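Write out the 3D structure for:
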Amino acid sequence: MDWLQALGPSLLIVLGGIITWFLKSRVEELRATEQRLQQERLKIYGQILDPYIRLFADLKPRGGPETTKRAVQQITSYQYKKTAFDLNLFGSDDVIRAYSALMAHTNEAESSGQQDPREMMRLWGALLLAIRRDLGSKSTRLNEFDMLSGMVKDVDALKNPPR
């Protein structure tokens, strides 16, 4: 019994140290995994946004219809579809929903031949906003059109259409 009283506190300290070390290493491992996931998301988000940036960029004097054609070809390519699949694996729920809504609108506009630029811009802004929130700005007060104001001319006209 005396040996238990003598060794008990030492054993508790060693056991507590082992448990603390295990928990700390687990937390560090989770942080490293989250950081790698965040980097992968950032790469995928950039690849997903690229053709839309081409579409919405004001390149008419230099690119015009050719730029639009290249962007559409990029969206319909195998590599882009693979990236969209990766988005479904790595993206946040909100980003996936925003991307799906944008693609559904794009596909509907393509099949019907009628495009609503205001809705297209709103959906693109919603995708950008979802990505922004996923990458760390969870409490942002921006809206879909605020996300586009620095990139798209006349975004205010789309935000508040004439009656």
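Residues 42-159 form one domain.
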